[in-house]
């Protein structure tokens, strides 16, 4: 029983990271129509920056805040400088453009920080409680709680606030929203900012929980996308559920020997099945864009 | 017609007769890989330029082709050229299977499916490794790897460079042939409007699968050639990130002409080696590639090749 509890807990922790990534992707995609493949690179840059701050001996709180701030900065920079000129292109082209930003960030990270073994120590790593007979660090609990809180907060925000309403209008139809006088650029910048903040936070926690390696964090965007796909790139609660489910499946497969080396395939297989299921009964693609 | 045939023939002649004379041993290997990856990029271009489909899993198919070629090379006494053909055809079949989801979707979701496929293959390659002369189906030996047979009449690296370039050129010819015959016309119609293509009597399903099979064939042949060039394959060459990079470079080079694929191959393999030679960090190459991709998408949809051709064709006023 203890073993299952152990893998369940670690699966939920990894799953909440996938979910956090997926939520950031979905929030952005909902209002701007951009699926941001550079999300992981932004997370990696933020995590490395936080490490740098801590390495300079500055207080831990500052390094936490800096991760989120850098995330917002990098995300908004793309949103303001590059995304507007692609606003009227099809979704696939917008997504491919973010791959360019991802490569740039990846190159910058490699240029600034040499490859080395690094570690982020968060103060919450030392605090732990016992759950199902397993020692659970506070960092894991924070990752889990924040992912759930982010979903609740975002759903409420979109539903109740004025800017949230603007975002929903933009998600429905950008042209009509513009015609109604909704400040498109302002609303989109806000979405880029929220998504960037989540990216920075995810990077920081990922760096502490899993590994502080820029390429690993950068390509965390692939399982995060898998989580987002589970939410049809639209629904936040389903993205959360998808991310947690993927994380738990991936972790539990460790227990089944023949599948153990292939367990990291779980996100891809699950996402591919979800996509195929979503497209069921559809024969022609015609001009309709996903 | 001769006007469009001449430039590729000139490039082919230079590659066959001039390059082997001027390159040192190290650069012969680099240019061989560049030529091979130009072929893989051509497969990406077929789907992107002809049908507007985004395939981020091309590198995975290259890996599949390489795996099949290595497996056959160790297990059978077949001639190497035949093995390359078999690897190409088998990979084309796998590419056609990848096309099944593509029949129902396009745009972003197709890109995502291929990205998921690339991620899955990356893990498969890592788990099972590439055959290196060991026992059993997976053929992985723990100790030192066995040598593979080279193609007939090819003894040196320079010989292999020529051999690869001839095969790459033949495959480029195959793609060019597709563009001017029935499949090319069908693809053009499908790209404009699937509904209209169907109304005009084009078998949309068949020609879409055909495009994926052709793209897979190019990837498979590239993989088989690569296994012969390197003797051994490393799972780390077939990461999903490499697939993204190769796609980016195919777009940067220019998806609409053969020259674009050649430029993509050069950027992918030759440029990093050159930068390394000059003592510049490979990270700079990534930054340049990223910027070039953004530039290509925003202002130069035909890529570097399109800009070059445009500059050459512009009449002096």
Could you list some keywords that capture this structure?
A: 290 residues; mainly alpha; ABC transporter involved in vitamin B12 uptake, BtuC; two-stranded antiparallel ribbon; B: 317 residues; 13 helices; globular
Précis, in short:
The complex is a heterodimer of chains A (290) and B (317). With 290 residues, chain A is mostly helical.
Tell me what you see in this structure:
The complex is a heterodimer of chains A (290) and B (317). Chain A has 290 residues and is mainly α. Helix content of chain A is 70%, strand content 3%. Chain A is built from twelve helices and two strands; from the N terminus they run H-H-H-H-E-E-H-H-H-H-H-H-H-H. A two-stranded antiparallel sheet of chain A has the order 1-2. Chain A is globular. The model of chain A has no long low-confidence stretch (mean pLDDT 85). Chain B has a domain at 30-136 and 168-240. In chain B, helix 10 (240-253) crosses helix 11 (258-277), helix 10 (240-253) crosses helix 12 (282-298) and helix 11 (258-277) crosses helix 13. In chain B, 50% of the residues are buried. At the A-B interface, helix 4, helix 10 and helix 12 of A face helix 5, helix 8, helix 10 and helix 12 of B.
The Cα radius of gyration of chain B reads 19 Å
Oligomer: heterodimer
How far apart the termini of chain B lie comes to: 25 Å
Stretches of chain B where pLDDT is under 50 for at least 5 consecutive residues are none
Main sheet specs of chain B:
none
- Biggest interchain interface, per-side counts: A-B, 53 and 49 residues
Mean pLDDT of chain A: 85
User: Low-confidence spans of chain A: pLDDT under 50, at least 5 residues?
Assistant: none
Mean pLDDT of chain B: 85
Largest sheet of chain A: 2 strands, antiparallel
Shape of chain B: globular
In the CATH scheme, what's the topology name of chain A? ABC transporter involved in vitamin B12 uptake, BtuC
The helix/strand series of chain A, from N terminus to C terminus, equals: HHHHEEHHHHHHHH
Q: Distance N terminus to C terminus of chain A?
A: 44 Å
Q: Number of DSSP strands of chain B?
A: 0
Q: Find the count of extended strands of chain A (DSSP E, 2+ residues).
A: 2
SS-derived structural category of chain A: mainly alpha
- Judging by the overall fold, what is the CATH architecture of chain A? Orthogonal Bundle
Approximately what portion of the residues of chain B adopt beta-strand conformation? Answer: under 5%
